[in-house]
Amino acid sequence: MSILITGGAGYIGSHTVVELQNAGYSVVVVDNFSNSFPEALRRVEKITGKRVPFYKADIRDRSAMEEIFRKEKFECCIHFAGFKAVGQSVTAPWEYYDNNINGTLALIDVMRKYRTKNMIFSSSATVYGKPAFVPITEDCPKGKIVNPYGRTKSMQEEILADIQKADPEWNVILLRYFNPIGAHISGLIGESPVGIPGNLVPYIAQVAVRRLEKLLIYGNDYHTRDGTGIRDYIHVSDLAVGHVKALEAVRQNPGLEIYNLGTGKGYSVLEVVRCFEQVSGVPIPCQVVSRRPGDIAVCYADAGKAERELKWKTTRSLADMCLDSWRWQLGNPNGYHDACS
Ligand code: NAD
Ligand code: WQD
Asked: Domains in the chain, start-ordered, CATH in brackets?
């Protein structure tokens, strides 16, 4: 029996494949490469020394998915596939609802048909909206979500919860990620954004290699210790290990469970910039501009539930995250694009 990894060539998926293979699991990746490259999987193979079987397919394509399910035997699906750019979701919401919602529905359909009823889903701290309190526990009420991307995540959660309720043979674990950054310590795999990065650390990394001129800091007038936004940055390899732990849990028939995956610590934009400068030795020019619409002041996890129940804890520091991002960026200034041109 294998683990189906949808979106396994992407940023978080590829790091998760590494940790799963290192833990002895057999995986099969399905990805349409709409936001990734097969090269990522070749590099995973270099890291783990194991072959990564994969199919190029769109999860919305039911007949392609059925063909895969007929050939393979899956005990669980870890579902990463989807679009994730907040800005794009505002300008092209139809694409986000189609890919994220229809994709998940089509996948569930095929999983039901072939009786694979264990699912680990990539959700996001974005479902808390402007959180009612910090640190955020899993029972913090969902807040008002200000963009279509976030709404698709929240809807996907609800769809999966309803399905599990209707058919208790399903086991569903919803993982709410905080802010994943960093890269595998080898520097072989990492985040490879298309166009100008929307997220903080990939942007800083591109300023550091002088692909971008300066970082625009979105507001220094928040009620935080230095006025800039505070987030819970988590190393992508720690996050990946969280999936291995969730997989162990889903096999114990938990029904429906939700876990925050974060470190429990918040860092400000200025603290991240200073840390990146320190580990790279490169100054990062910055300019403070007005707040980005939709941003909140502070967001960090109470990760206690995952620690207690999944026996999972992050081990990497902010300096590790910045150093690993820097190593990846230096070795691959254009992400995977160079390896594919
Ligand atoms: P990513 O874009 O790097 O990975 C997603 C992968 O899914 C890509 O390889 C893409 O080609 C593939 N894909 C997209 N649509 C597909 C389809 N219809 N069929 C098959 N493959 C498809 O993104 P990521 O950062 O690795 O995020 C993975 C998941 O985690 C996403 O669901 C995202 O919403 C969620 N998430 C990400 C973050 C983050 O900050 N990166 C935070 C919270 C949640
Ligand atoms: C972090 C901080 C910005 C860029 C987003 C999604 C969320 C989740 C993770 C998927 C904030 C500041 C940023 C820049 C800046 N993704 N910033 N200049 O907004 O917490 O979360 O990614 O689920 O859904 O919304 O992350 O990295 O964009 O921002 O000053 O150029 O950095 O204002 O305080 P965010 P981020």
From this structure: 2-182+234-262 (3.40.50.720)
Span from the CA of 215 to the centroid of ligand 2 (angstroms): 13
CB 175 within 8 A of CB 246: yes
Q: pTM (2 decimals)?
A: 0.99
Which residue, judged by its Cα, is nearest atom 39 of ligand 1?
Answer: 180
Task: Report how far ligand 1's centroid is from the alpha carbon of 205 (Å).
Answer: 20
Cis-peptide into 135, omega within 30 deg: yes
pLDDT in tens, 316-325: 999 999 999 9
Complex confidence, ipTM: 0.99
Out of 96, 149, 233, 300, the active site residue is 149
**CA-based torsion, 333, 334, 337, 341: positive or negative:** negative
Q: For the residues of 9-27, what is the DSSP string, one character each?
A: TSHHHHHHHHHHHHTT--E
Structural tokens at position 173: 């674990």
What is the atom index within ligand 2 of the atom nearest the CA of 201? 27
Tell me the per-residue pLDDT of 3-29, one tens digit each, with 9 for 90 and over: 999 999 999 999 999 999 999 999 999
- If one counts every other C-beta atom within 10 angstroms of the C-beta of residue 113, the result is 12
Q: CA geometry: angle at 167 spanning 303 and 81, to 5°?
A: 55
Strands 230-231 and 298-299: parallel
Q: Which ligand is nearest to the CA of 82?
A: 1
Residue 332 in contact with ligand 1 by CB distance below 6 A? no
Active site residue 97: no
Query: Distance, CA 200 to ligand 2 centroid (Å)?
Result: 6
Pairing of strands 233-235, 286-289: unpaired
